[in-house]
C-alpha cells in the first residue's frame, strides 16, 4: 500500500510546496502561476497538449530505440575486439567534450525541421550512457565464470552470449534508466532550435505569448512522460532480472539485521 501511496504523497507535497512559494513570494500569474491555474489549463488544453505530446513522445521513443541499439552494438564491439577498442574509446571520450546541444543547429541544417533532427538529438544524448554502462558491465564479468567456461571448451561466442551478456544486464539496465531520463532533453532541445510541433515548440510559443500557465502545463506533460518511461524501464528490468531484485532484497535484509 505504501508503494502505491508514495508517488501520490510526493506529488501532493511538491504541489503544496509550489503553492506555498506562490503565496510567500506573491509572484504575479504571468511569472509564476499557481498549481490550480496550471492544472486548469492542463485540462482545458488537453487536446492541444496531447497533440504536441504525441509528437515529442514519438521522438523520444525512436531516439531510445536507435540510441540503445547503437550503444549496445558499440559496447559489444569494444568488449570483443581489442584493436577497435584502442582506436574508438578515445574518440568516444573526446566526443563527450563537445556539448550535444551545440550540435542541434547543425543537425537541423542537415536533417531539416522534421522529426529526424529531434530523433538524432535524442539518439546522440542517449548513446554514450548506454555504451559506457553496457561496456562496463561486459568488462566486469566474474573471471571465475569465464575460466570455467574456457575449461569446458566454450567458444568466445558462447562465452559472450551465455555468460558475459547476462552478467552485463544489470549495468545495461542502469544505462537504460539514465537514457530514459535524458532522452526528453534531446528531443525538446531539438524542438527549441526549430520545429512546428512538439512540447518544446509549444513551450516556446506559449512563452512568447505570455501564456505561462500553458508553458507550465506542457512542462508537466514532459515530466510525466520522462517519469513514466523511467519507471516502466525499471519495472521491466526487475521483471526480466529477478535475481538482481532478490540480491538487493537480501543485501537490505542483511544490513537491517546487522543494525
UniProtKB/TrEMBL annotation:
PROSITE patterns: ABC_TM1 (PS50928). It is found in: Cell membrane. InterPro entries: MetI-like, MetI-like_sf. Keywords: Cell membrane, Membrane, Transmembrane, Transmembrane helix, Transport. It is a multi-pass membrane protein. The chain crosses the membrane at residues 60-79, 91-113, 119-138, 167-194, 214-233. Pfam families: BPD_transp_1 (PF00528). GO terms for biological process: transmembrane transport. Its main location: membrane. Residues 49-233 form the ABC transmembrane type-1 domain. GO terms for cellular component: plasma membrane. Belongs to the binding-protein-dependent transport system permease family. This is Putative hydroxymethylpyrimidine transport system permease protein. It comes from Marinobacterium mangrovicola. The lineage of its organism: Bacteria, Pseudomonadati, Pseudomonadota, Gammaproteobacteria, Oceanospirillales.
Amino acid at each position: 500500500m505504501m508503494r502505491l501511496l508514495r508517488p501520490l504523497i510526493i506529488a501532493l507535497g511538491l504541489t503544496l510546496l509550489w503553492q506555498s512559494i506562490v503565496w510567500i513570494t506573491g509572484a504575479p500569474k504571468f511569472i509564476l502561476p499557481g498549481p490550480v491555474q496550471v492544472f486548469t489549463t492542463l485540462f482545458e488544453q488537453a487536446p492541444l497538449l496531447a497533440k504536441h505530446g504525441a509528437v515529442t513522445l514519438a521522438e523520444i521513443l525512436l531516439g531510445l530505440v536507435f540510441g540503445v541499439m547503437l550503444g549496445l552494438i558499440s559496447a559489444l564491439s569494444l568488449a570483443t575486439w581489442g584493436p577497435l577498442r584502442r582506436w574508438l574509446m578515445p574518440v568516444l571520450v573526446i566526443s563527450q567534450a563537445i556539448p550535444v546541444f551545440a550540435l542541434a543547429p547543425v543537425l537541423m541544417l542537415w536533417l531539416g525541421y522534421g522529426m529526424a533532427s529531434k530523433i538524432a538529438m535524442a539518439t546522440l544524448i542517449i548513446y554514450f550512457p548506454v555504451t559506457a554502462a553496457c561496456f562496463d558491465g561486459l568488462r566486469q564479468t566474474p573471471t571465475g565464470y569465464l575460466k570455467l567456461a574456457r575449461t569446458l571448451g566454450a567458444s568466445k561466442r558462447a562465452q559472450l552470449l551465455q555468460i558475459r551478456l547476462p552478467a552485463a544486464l544489470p549495468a545495461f539496465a542502469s544505462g537504460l534508466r539514465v537514457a530514459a531520463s535524458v532522452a526528453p532533453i534531446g528531443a525538446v532541445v531539438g524542438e527549441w532550435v526549430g520545429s512546428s510541433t512538439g512540447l518544446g515548440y509549444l513551450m516556446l510559443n506559449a512563452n512568447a505569448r505570455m501564456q505561462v500557465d500553458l508553458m507550465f502545463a506542457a512542462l508537466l506533460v514532459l515530466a510525466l512522460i520522462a517519469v513514466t518511461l523511467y519507471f516502466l524501464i525499471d519495472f521491466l528490468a526487475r521483471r526480466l532480472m529477478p535475481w538482481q531484485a532478490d540480491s538487493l532484497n537480501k543485501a537490505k535484509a542483511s544490513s537491517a539485521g546487522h543494525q
